[in-house]
Amino acid sequence: MIQPDASIVILTGAGMSAESGVPTFRGVDGLWEGHRIEDVASPGGFARDPDLVHRFYNLRRAALNHVEPNAGHLALARLESEWRGRFLLVTQNVDDLHERAGSEKLIHMHGELRKARCEGCGAVMSWTQDLASGTRCRACGEIGGMRPHIVWFGEFPFEMDVILAALKRADLFLCIGTSGVVYPAAGFAQIAAERPNCHLIEMNLESTAISRQFHEHIVGPAAIELPKLVERLLAKR
Ligand code: BV8
Hints:
This protein has helices at 15-18, 37-40, 43-48, 50-63, 71-82, 97-101, 160-168, 188-193, 222-235; strands at residues 8-12, 31-32, 35-36, 87-91, 106-108, 111-118, 124-126, 146-150, 172-176, 199-204, 216-219.
């Protein structure tokens, strides 16, 4: 029974954006143009072949111009705006569909496709065009230091302190559309479960590497199941 003033923490993965037409990682078997994604989305991969990595992100950034938030994104934005208790949405996704649906209490723990960062001066800036090795930093004017503002494999995810604090006081942990393979996100359910009365719900098309950690499983597409779950949660107020 989720109280109306309960504290909710939500984690989303690539399955959240699948019905918007954004391919999941498992969907491509973790490969892109024959490269293992861990090799492309890594500091080593960027050092070895920066233009290959820029191309990987340029294609995905450009694809964002042709996708829209789905009913699942809109349902989470509605829950945030109408929920009286604490609310935090943590996404592993680097697309901007949650914010375009209206979500505000949102952390992109793995970064954002539509942002770039200068390794020279550290500036993070909104970026919708292509990036390349010769791109000049808009802040310091240097060339050669620009990279996607993305957390690669082997790099530290963003705002882990805020996320861990929220998990430790969560009354409901809802995990949507993630295969539960990538850490530390895959370990969040275990942290939430340490709080005695926290209720854990997993929403996915299939069981995952972390399914056994959840009390409740909603099997089905997020764009269909999430609006129904939000309706249920808000009806109890
Ligand atoms: C870290 C940005 C230390 C990039 C991403 C060995 C060697 C080296 C490293 C490691 C190692 N073992 C473990 C590690 C750590 C590593 C890791 O976990 N590796 C894995 C491969 C084993 N992790 C890291 O390196 C992380 N950093 O550990 O730093 C640290 C430790 C603790 C605390 C602080 C620091 C950094 C990881 C971040 C990497 N960057 N993204 C980019 O996007 O290009 S990860 C990227 O892949 C995504 O962000 C996402 O997290 C992950 C893909 O996972 P999912 O989102 O789950 O997507 P997937 O396709 O797998 O699954 C989709 C699911 O949706 C499926 O279950 C499917 O059934 C479901 N679905 C599909 N359609 C729908 C649906 N569900 C509902 N409705 C639908 N319609």
